[in-house]
Amino acid sequence: MTFRISQTIDHTAQNANVSVEGILTQAEAKLLENICTDLMDRVQSNITINVSGVTLQDEGAKELLRQIKAKCSSLTRCSFFPRTLIEDFHNGEFQPCY
């Protein structure tokens, strides 16, 4: 399976959306992080990442997704498997990626 990142920018609303599909490893997550950082600089706003097409994540990808979510974005359409891999646990409560 291939890996694909698609991005759209709504200049009127000053936001960006990214869709991720395929097997997400640390290398692909690093590419995603770079794309998200670039988009944040361009739209001067947080971005939304659709992870519904992600089928597998390694440990490095999981940590990078946590970092991406924390600094620049929200994750949407997060199915059960990826959600359980990347949920953060803070102050005794899970912070889900809906």
Please give the number of β-strands.
6
Give the spatial strand order of the biggest sheet: 1-2-3-4
The number of helices is 3
First-last Cα distance: 25 Å
Number of domains: 1
Q: What's the CATH architecture?
A: 2-Layer Sandwich
Cα-atom Rg, whole angstroms?
A: 13 Å
The whole-number mean of residue pLDDT values reads 78
**Named CATH topology:** Transcription Regulator spoIIAA
As residue ranges, the low-confidence spans are: 89-94
| Estimated structural class | alpha/beta
Helix content: 25-40%
Spell out the helices and strands N to C.
Answer: EEHEHEHEE
What's the quaternary structure here? single chain
Overall shape: it is globular
Specify the CATH class: Alpha Beta
The CATH superfamily is known as STAS domain
Question: Sheet with the most strands?
Answer: 4 strands, mixed
**Strand content bin:** 35-45%
Descriptive keywords:
98 residues; two-stranded antiparallel ribbon; 3 helices; 4-stranded mixed beta sheet; alpha/beta; Transcription Regulator spoIIAA; 39% strand
